[in-house]
Write a structure and sequence with these properties.
5 strands, alpha+beta, single chain, globular
């Protein structure tokens, strides 16, 4: 699955890379945002994609614990919520990949981290109460 993800990233980069040299900084950032969202949507399950299109968020099941996490597209820094069995937020988590990435790329990295590397992601995440 991850090899296919890397292949898709390479395909998208090769198709659009030649156009970047003639674009302004704002155009490049807008294109990066669009490509990030396309890559995210291409890697969501059908249920996650429906959630994302309707609410700009989607739920992920942790690969080790089976806990449910909600990843939101939001301006605030704590995009990830851990949910209880009723779907209520019990705590907020803050962890990001390094670099200046667009929202779609950040959300995809958080999804993959929780599904494939849940223990490590939680170890580095800053944890906050649900009511913040």
């Amino acid at each position: 699955m991850y090899a296919s993800l890397i292949g898709r990233i390479g395909d998208i980069w090769r198709r659009t890379g030649s156009f970047l040299s003639v674009m302004t900084g704002g155009d490049r950032r807008a294109m990066a945002r669009q490509r990030g969202l396309e890559l995210l949507k291409a890697n969501l399950t059908p249920d996650q994609l429906n959630q994302f299109l309707a609410y700009r968020r989607f739920d992920v099941v942790g690969g080790v614990s089976g806990r449910t996490y909600r990843i939101r597209m939001a301006a605030r820094p704590m995009h990830v919520e851990e949910l209880d069995h009723r779907g209520q937020c019990v705590r907020r988590l803050c962890f990001y990949p390094k670099g200046r990435l667009v929202d779609g790329d950040i959300m995809l990295a958080q999804k993959v981290a929780l599904e494939a590397f849940e223990v490590q992601a939680l170890a580095i995440a800053n944890k906050f109460p649900a009511n913040i």
